Amino acid sequence: MSSMDKMWISFGSMGCMFLAMLFMFFVKTKFKNAFLKFIFGLIAYILLFIGFITMIYIIFNPTKA
């Protein structure tokens, strides 16, 4: 895998973490419905987990020089 591929994966990882942050903000402040809170909270945690796993992959698999 090239360095550019890893760069795009890391951008996707940061995007997942940003979306998770936005979803959690809306869950905590805007939603009153418990079902919507659960669904959006679950999506936020899944995005956070995906972002974390992909970032760990990028950090611990350096590119070959």
Automatic annotation (TrEMBL):
Keywords: Membrane, Transmembrane, Transmembrane helix
Protein's UniProt keywords contain Transmembrane: yes
Stretches that traverse the bilayer: 6-26, 38-60
Name of the molecule in the record: DUF2768 domain-containing protein
Organism this protein belongs to: Psychrobacillus soli
Phylogenetic classification of the source organism: Bacteria, Bacillati, Bacillota, Bacilli, Bacillales
